[in-house]
Write a structure and sequence with these properties.
This protein is mostly helical and 195 residues long. The protein has one domain (2-189). Helices cover 82% and strands 0% of the residues. The longest helix is centred in the N-terminal third of the chain and has 34 residues, at 36-69. The N and C termini lie far apart (61 Å).
Length: 195
């Protein structure tokens, strides 16, 4: 189909736009770890905000993988990522991302700031951080090139990413009472007035 020609380039550009946004948001999230006790509310808010953006990134990369393995001509012509990346790093990134955010949401929903679930969240972060670092380093040089291509439908791709960000912001706003409660619990544990 002529109408769908260039799908792999467009998918790569969507993924690059998402990756750029995620680098910024994850840097903010990471900065909260420098003083997590006083920045717990920011950490939880940004974590929730990230959920739709990360889901869209997983869909975008999943589409690329499925299209390749189902024999999509453009995707096959591009070729697969290096075997170590697709067989080792990518599965660890996907599973650890899901586990990291699932435990984070569970901590917020259950209003927990101590215990085994916190340990699981921290352990999944370590695994995620290592795998994600390898992933980012192997893909970083492709992002500027993908962003610079003038491809039809760029406004639509930017709009889809913006919609995921707006959905994340709305979701994060809805969870503000739980975020505030979690911050109060963390502050109370260290003897700080939680008002």
């Amino acid at each position: 189909m002529k109408r769908l020609a260039g799908g792999s380039d467009r998918n790569e550009q969507l993924t690059a736009i998402l990756a750029t946004l995620l680098l910024v948001l994850l840097a903010i999230e990471g900065a909260t770890l420098l003083n997590i006790r006083s920045l717990m509310s920011v950490h939880a808010f940004v974590g929730v905000l990230l959920l739709p953006v990360i889901a869209l990134k997983l869909v975008s990369t999943g589409w690329r993988m499925i299209s390749y393995y189902l024999g999509g001509e453009e995707y096959v012509r591009r070729g697969p990522p290096h075997l170590a990346i697709r067989a080792l790093v990518a599965p660890v990134v996907v599973v650890s991302t899901i586990f990291l955010f699932a435990t984070g949401v569970a901590l917020l929903a259950l209003d927990q700031s101590q215990g085994a679930l916190v340990g699981l969240h921290k352990a999944s972060f370590v695994v995620w951080f290592l795998a994600m670092s390898v992933h980012v380093l192997t893909r970083l040089t492709r992002v500027p090139r993908s962003l610079g291509h003038r491809l039809p439908g760029l406004a639509l791709r930017v709009g889809i990413v913006a919609a995921s960000l707006v959905a994340g912001l709305a979701l994060a706003m809805l969870t503000l009472p739980a975020v505030d409660q979690l911050q109060d619990n963390v502050s109370a544990q260290v003897g700080v007035d939680a008002e």
